[in-house]
Amino acid sequence: MRRRAARVQEPGTVGAPGAARHGEAPGTPRHMNAPKGLPLWLKVTAVTVSVLLVAGIAFAAYWVIRLQSNISKAPLSAGAPRTGAAANDATDRLQILILGSDTRDGKNSQYGSTQDSTGYGQSDVMMLLDISADNKRVSLTSFPRDLLVNVPKCTDPKTNTVYEAHSNVMINSAMAEAGIGCAVDTVNKLTGLQIDHFMMADFNAVKELSNAVGGVNVCVSDAVYDPDSGLRLPKGTSSVQGEQALAFLRTRHGFGDGSDLGRIQAQQGFLSSLTRKIKSDGTLGNPQSLLSIADAVTKNLTVDEGLASVQSLLTIGSRLKDVDLSKVAFVSVPTQPAAVDPNRLELVQPQASQLFAAMRANLDLTTPGATATPSASPSPAASGTPSSSTAPAPSAPAVPAYDKALQPVTVADGTGIASRGQEIAADLVGGGFTKAAHFLAAAVPKTVVYYGAGYADVAPDVANLLGIPASQVELSKGVVGVQVYIGSDFNSGTKYGVASVPSDVVKQTAGDVKCQAVNPALIAR
């Protein structure tokens, strides 16, 4: 048998026992050599992941840049000092003033002439959005545009022009001279709250938002046609978007008695329906839908500097996604025709003061009668009150040794709120002090019960009836009988230091489906 010739190998070539590959040291163990090429499937996967990662980053960057460039911003205040630290948008209670501008420039020019609005324009809509710290409650409180208020001194941030305070002017004019910050300062002054942010949208925001969600269902009691706004709807439920959605919100005379209050109810109904749709569609949890809405809104939105970032807007949006519809309350500030002009509105007291006190105490407005005792101590008394001694307040006797009906008790109204003194005097009369009278007095921050010589036994009973602590009962040489000097720390309710939710302030929740009553004058025949 012929043997095959042995193949001669050169030292160091592949195949020789212990030989090294090119570039390897002789004797290197095989398991320490460089690995073989990666499998094709793994290479494809790695490339795909890399491409998707880069595309995702590019997509996110594109949207952040796009949305950020959409946003316009303005100062939160027009000069009023802010007390306390700024709120944490993710974890704190948040109060955001939502405004609709009536400016007619730019894309809004089709809705009127530039003469229809001056300066910064006027607020066509004004609502205060309040989100609880635990994200379980949301309220939207509407302020009628015709409401007469006092506008504080404001400074235009663009020109530094100072505008003096105005009395008894419509609340929608608050931003006309010095900008949105003046509207914020006005609502803070009116309510005693401290607003954290604002959002102002123009007419186009409504159209584009309603288009982005595919329309909003609204219900009307009768077929309606309003030639002024262009609203035309059949009786029953319709889906509105674009121009018809804007017309539904803009109509001044279409609903109720044709006043601004009817328009507010329609706006609340629209927002209620919008909330239900967004919740049912899972929009706030759907990035694609959320981006579409964010793009539509931010192109027509002005916010304060603290809210002028995409992250801040997304943070607030995420806080709203799990709120129960029954805890999204639409509130109307209690008003009545103004005494100075029946075509304007003024606050109804004491209901308005009670509402603002409940809001300051962070009460659930969907629970009428809910109460809370503020933890903060009343501020020190201002000068101008009757002089008093430092004598300790007397303690109340177990059984009065006097006739309540004969005691001279007066209420000095230092709250600055019309009819507030009358309300407290009426409560004293109901408690047996039937001679109680009231008069207007200089404004003071702190409530004190003063008493003259011989009335040390009466004063504690008067204070106890109103819930005023004994530490605020003082002897005063200038007082005859007992005088209850009420200050701004007692501007609502008949029990001092206790805030309560008045009845009938919540007009509907987001869970309620309502039809708007059409103004008889605009029913389409």
Q: Secondary structure elements and their pairing?
A:
Elements: H1 40-70, E1 72-74, E2 94-101, E3 123-131, E4 138-142, E5 148-151, E6 154-155, E7 162-163, E8 166-170, H2 180-191, E9 197-201, H3 203-212, E10 216-220, E11 224-226, E12 231-233, E13 236-240, H4 243-250, H5 260-281, H6 287-298, E14 301-304, H7 310-320, E15 328-332, E16 335-337, E17 345-347, H8 351-360, E18 371-372, E19 409-413, H9 420-430, E20 437-440, E21 448-451, H10 458-466, E22 473-475, E23 482-486, E24 499-500, E25 506-509
Parallel strand pairs: 1-14, 2-9, 4-15, 19-20, 19-23, 21-22
Antiparallel strand pairs: 2-3, 3-4, 5-8, 6-7, 9-14, 10-13, 11-12, 15-25, 16-17, 18-24, 21-23
Helix pairs in contact: 1-6, 3-4, 3-6
| Integer-rounded radius of gyration | 34 Å
The tally of helices reads 10
Q: Return the average pLDDT rounded to an integer.
A: 82
What about the largest sheet? 8 strands, mixed
How would you describe what is shown here?
It is a single chain. The chain has 10 helices and 25 strands. Helix 3 (203-212) runs antiparallel to helix 6 (287-298). By secondary structure, the chain is of the alpha/beta class. It starts with 39 loop residues before the first helix and ends in a 16-residue tail after the last strand. It is globular, with a radius of gyration of 34 Å. Mean pLDDT is 82; it is low at 1-25, 28-32, 108-113 and 375-397.
What distinguishing features does this structure have?
20% strand, single chain, 10 helices, 525 residues, 25 strands, five-stranded mixed beta sheet, disordered N terminus, eight-stranded mixed beta sheet, alpha/beta, globular
